Amino acid sequence: MKAVYKCLQRLGGAVRGDDAQRASHGNVERTFGVWYGDLQVGVLKEALDGWRFSYSEDFLKQDRVRVIADFPQKEKSYAMKDLWPFFASRIPSLEQPKVQKQIERENIDSGDKGALLERFGKHSIANSYTLAPAR
Length: 135
Hints:
With 135 residues, the protein is α+β, with helices and mostly antiparallel strands. The protein has one domain. 32% of the residues lie in helices and 21% in strands. A hairpin with a 2-residue loop joins strand 1 (30-36) and strand 2 (39-47). The two termini are 24 Å apart. This is HipA N-terminal domain-containing protein. InterPro entries: HipA_N1. Residues 34-124 form the HipA N-terminal subdomain domain. It comes from Puniceicoccus vermicola.
Protein backbone atom coordinates (compact mmCIF):
# COMPACT_ATOMS: atom_id res chain seq x y z
CA MET A 1 0.00 0.00 0.00
CA LYS A 2 2.88 2.36 0.64
CA ALA A 3 3.88 1.92 -3.00
CA VAL A 4 0.35 2.87 -4.12
CA TYR A 5 0.45 5.99 -1.96
CA LYS A 6 3.85 7.01 -3.33
CA CYS A 7 2.67 6.42 -6.88
CA LEU A 8 -0.38 8.64 -6.29
CA GLN A 9 1.88 11.34 -4.90
CA ARG A 10 4.13 11.21 -7.97
CA LEU A 11 1.10 11.47 -10.24
CA GLY A 12 -0.07 14.54 -8.37
CA GLY A 13 -3.05 12.87 -6.73
CA ALA A 14 -4.21 14.42 -3.50
CA VAL A 15 -3.98 11.98 -0.65
CA ARG A 16 -4.98 13.14 2.81
CA GLY A 17 -2.64 12.44 5.71
CA ASP A 18 -5.09 9.95 7.19
CA ASP A 19 -5.19 8.09 3.90
CA ALA A 20 -1.41 7.94 3.90
CA GLN A 21 -1.40 6.57 7.42
CA ARG A 22 -4.10 4.03 6.53
CA ALA A 23 -2.17 3.03 3.42
CA SER A 24 0.86 2.31 5.55
CA HIS A 25 -1.29 0.10 7.77
CA GLY A 26 -2.66 -1.94 4.89
CA ASN A 27 -6.28 -0.69 5.01
CA VAL A 28 -7.01 -3.06 7.86
CA GLU A 29 -10.44 -2.89 9.41
CA ARG A 30 -10.78 -4.52 12.81
CA THR A 31 -13.72 -5.40 15.03
CA PHE A 32 -13.51 -5.97 18.77
CA GLY A 33 -16.11 -7.28 21.17
CA VAL A 34 -16.35 -5.42 24.47
CA TRP A 35 -17.25 -7.83 27.26
CA TYR A 36 -18.17 -7.62 30.94
CA GLY A 37 -17.95 -11.18 32.18
CA ASP A 38 -20.17 -13.25 29.91
CA LEU A 39 -22.16 -10.25 28.63
CA GLN A 40 -21.15 -8.69 25.35
CA VAL A 41 -21.52 -5.01 26.13
CA GLY A 42 -20.73 -3.64 22.71
CA VAL A 43 -18.71 -3.62 19.53
CA LEU A 44 -15.73 -1.42 18.70
CA LYS A 45 -14.86 -1.14 15.01
CA GLU A 46 -11.85 0.39 13.33
CA ALA A 47 -12.71 1.52 9.81
CA LEU A 48 -11.02 3.60 7.14
CA ASP A 49 -12.63 6.78 8.43
CA GLY A 50 -12.05 6.24 12.16
CA TRP A 51 -13.56 4.33 15.05
CA ARG A 52 -17.13 3.34 15.90
CA PHE A 53 -18.70 2.01 19.08
CA SER A 54 -22.21 0.74 19.69
CA TYR A 55 -23.85 -1.33 22.39
CA SER A 56 -24.87 -4.90 21.62
CA GLU A 57 -28.46 -6.12 21.46
CA ASP A 58 -27.84 -8.28 24.55
CA PHE A 59 -26.64 -5.24 26.47
CA LEU A 60 -29.68 -3.21 25.44
CA LYS A 61 -32.00 -5.95 26.77
CA GLN A 62 -30.43 -6.16 30.24
CA ASP A 63 -30.37 -3.88 33.27
CA ARG A 64 -27.62 -5.41 35.43
CA VAL A 65 -24.60 -3.62 33.87
CA ARG A 66 -24.56 0.16 33.50
CA VAL A 67 -23.49 2.08 30.41
CA ILE A 68 -19.84 3.04 29.96
CA ALA A 69 -19.40 6.66 31.06
CA ASP A 70 -17.85 7.69 27.72
CA PHE A 71 -20.89 6.26 25.90
CA PRO A 72 -23.92 7.35 27.97
CA GLN A 73 -26.70 6.79 25.41
CA LYS A 74 -27.52 3.11 24.90
CA GLU A 75 -29.19 3.45 21.52
CA LYS A 76 -26.61 5.77 19.97
CA SER A 77 -23.87 4.64 17.61
CA TYR A 78 -20.72 6.62 18.40
CA ALA A 79 -18.11 7.62 15.82
CA MET A 80 -14.76 9.32 16.29
CA LYS A 81 -11.75 9.86 14.07
CA ASP A 82 -9.28 8.89 16.81
CA LEU A 83 -9.54 6.11 19.36
CA TRP A 84 -11.42 7.10 22.54
CA PRO A 85 -9.31 7.37 25.71
CA PHE A 86 -11.39 4.57 27.26
CA PHE A 87 -9.84 2.18 24.72
CA ALA A 88 -6.53 3.97 24.05
CA SER A 89 -5.59 3.58 27.71
CA ARG A 90 -5.30 -0.16 27.07
CA ILE A 91 -2.25 0.41 24.88
CA PRO A 92 0.88 0.51 27.04
CA SER A 93 3.52 3.19 26.70
CA LEU A 94 5.66 2.45 23.68
CA GLU A 95 8.64 3.78 25.63
CA GLN A 96 8.75 0.66 27.82
CA PRO A 97 11.66 -1.59 26.76
CA LYS A 98 9.56 -4.74 27.23
CA VAL A 99 6.83 -3.34 24.96
CA GLN A 100 9.39 -2.23 22.36
CA LYS A 101 10.84 -5.76 22.28
CA GLN A 102 7.39 -7.30 21.82
CA ILE A 103 6.54 -4.89 19.01
CA GLU A 104 9.83 -5.62 17.27
CA ARG A 105 9.65 -9.39 17.82
CA GLU A 106 6.06 -9.60 16.56
CA ASN A 107 6.61 -7.10 13.73
CA ILE A 108 3.80 -4.79 14.88
CA ASP A 109 3.56 -1.31 13.38
CA SER A 110 3.88 0.98 16.41
CA GLY A 111 1.74 3.61 14.67
CA ASP A 112 -1.19 1.25 14.10
CA LYS A 113 -3.51 1.69 17.11
CA GLY A 114 -5.74 -1.17 15.98
CA ALA A 115 -2.81 -3.60 15.87
CA LEU A 116 -1.57 -2.37 19.26
CA LEU A 117 -5.04 -2.70 20.73
CA GLU A 118 -5.33 -6.19 19.28
CA ARG A 119 -1.99 -7.20 20.82
CA PHE A 120 -2.12 -5.43 24.19
CA GLY A 121 -5.73 -4.38 24.80
CA LYS A 122 -7.52 -7.48 26.07
CA HIS A 123 -7.34 -6.48 29.73
CA SER A 124 -6.84 -3.19 31.52
CA ILE A 125 -6.09 -2.29 35.11
CA ALA A 126 -8.30 0.78 34.56
CA ASN A 127 -11.57 -1.19 34.24
CA SER A 128 -13.04 -4.70 34.32
CA TYR A 129 -14.09 -4.91 30.68
CA THR A 130 -12.43 -7.34 28.30
CA LEU A 131 -11.66 -6.45 24.70
CA ALA A 132 -11.55 -9.37 22.30
CA PRO A 133 -10.87 -9.21 18.56
CA ALA A 134 -13.84 -10.60 16.63
CA ARG A 135 -12.94 -13.50 14.41
